[in-house]
Design a protein that fits this description.
The protein has 411 residues and is an all-alpha fold. The chain contains 20 helices and no strands. It has one domain.
Length: 411
């Protein structure tokens, strides 16, 4: 009876939310279109061309057995520290290099390959998803803050927070594993790693063209799903602001900001960042009432939390592999707290001392370095990203058409 009541309440809430969303689209068509275009541009210019190479290479590395090879070599490190197999080291490294939601995709792929148990997949997904260096250095520090020196502080705090989350989440699921035999980490053995690589390649032996086509097809499909979520949450964020719900919910966040001694004027920027990290980071950087340290702490939390847009992407990927989303969601709060704390603690050694002064003002030579390497790469991606996206979408359509024709031929 109680379960039936909960199911009915859930149905009513979901139906009401979707109806309100549809009604809002009708009331604010112009603002919805602008938000949709903003989300599409982010996916079109940056997300698709930056993530696609990592996704394709990851699929090929798994098929050729390189990931299994690295898993054997990294087993002595990953098993004692994080209680995950050595292949988790590959997902961890690729997640940091390529950014959200690569870690979740690789975790799901390794779980489907039966290289991870359910508990290990939940642990691994919790700390292998993070912002990539290009976004932290190029977009946030050099682009939004016009302060490349800040990128080092944000990046170190972000990745240290990620490691801290992994060390905490190693205790996740211990009770469920008590009845299972303990897996001791295999000692470092290069010959065994090479044999594992060869066996894995033979098991997945297919023509190179087929492997490459499958990798492109799977990667583009995932990125199309990611693009849909980015556009959706960009529109949701705008509609919440237009309906003044952001102003109504922000006071709840304002109370938390008082507890941690941050300016109340950061409430709406942080609230926006809880939905979409790009917009939230930009709004935080433009808050004149906050000091640079306070803005850096707020941005660190937003980057680590990831935003509901990223979390929806991860939830969709994990659901396809039947991996629970709840541990990942809890880990995002932990990552936000850890990253913000490290930003505050490392402010003096990594920013003030590195910049050469104790006042927090940026030296003149840092203004000259605004066009840093990371910023140039970010601008290059925004300029040429749409062309790369268009080319790979055409390739995806061609591969899908060929697969469809082959299926019809067999029938």
């Amino acid at each position: 009876m109680k379960r039936n009541w909960r199911a009915k309440l859930k149905t009513a809430l979901l139906a009401s939310a979707v109806t309100l969303f549809a009604f809002s689209l009708i009331c604010y068509p112009k603002q919805s279109l602008q938000a949709s275009i903003r989300g599409l541009n982010m996916w079109w210019e940056v997300v698709f061309p930056s993530l696609l190479p990592f996704f394709i290479v990851s699929e090929l590395l798994i098929s050729f057995g390189v990931v299994s090879f690295l898993g054997v070599l990294l087993e002595p490190l990953m098993r004692p520290l994080f209680r995950v197999p050595g292949v988790g080291g590959f997902a961890w490294a690729m997640g940091m290099a390529s950014g959200y939601p690569s870690g979740a995709k690789l975790t799901a792929r390794l779980y489907q390959e039966k290289q991870l148990s359910t508990i290990e997949a939940e642990r691994l997904s919790s700390f292998t998803n993070s912002s990539n260096p290009l976004f932290i250095f190029g977009a946030v520090s050099a682009g939004f803050f016009n302060n490349p020196q800040l990128g080092l502080l944000l990046a170190v705090s972000h990745y240290l927070g990620n490691i801290a989350v992994g060390l905490v989440m190693r205790f996740h699921g211990i009770r469920k594993e008590r009845g299972q035999p303990k897996r001791r980490p295999r000692s470092f053995s290069l010959p065994y790693a090479l044999r594992t690589l060869h066996k894995t390649r033979l098991k997945n032996e297919q023509p190179l063209g087929k492997l490459l086509g499958d990798a492109v097809h799977s990667s583009v499909q995932t990125l199309l799903m990611i693009g849909g979520f980015i556009i959706l949450f960009s529109v949701v964020n705008q509609l919440l602001y237009m309906m003044h719900l952001t102003e109504q919910l922000a006071p709840l966040l304002r109370q938390l900001l008082r507890l941690v001694q941050l300016p109340e004027q950061l409430d709406i920027p942080i609230f926006s960042g809880l939905f979409e990290i790009t917009l939230g980071s930009q709004m935080i950087s433009q808050t004149d009432e906050a000091e640079l340290l306070e803005k850096a702490v707020a941005v660190s939390f937003v980057l680590a939390f990831g935003g509901f847009s990223v979390q929806a992407q991860v939830a969709s990927i994990l659901a396809e592999a039947n991996i629970r989303f709840q541990p990942f969601f809890i880990a995002r709060f932990l990552h936000g707290v850890f990253a913000a704390s490290f930003t505050y603690l490392l402010w003096e050694p990594l920013y003030l001392r590195a910049a050469g002064n104790e006042t927090g003002n940026i030296p003149v030579f840092w203004h000259a370095a605004a066009e840093s390497v990371w910023h140039e790469r970010w601008q290059w991606l925004q300029h040429y990203g749409p062309l790369a996206t268009m080319l790979f979408l055409c390739l995806y359509i061609w591969l899908a058409a060929n697969a469809s024709n082959k299926t019809r031929g067999r029938l």
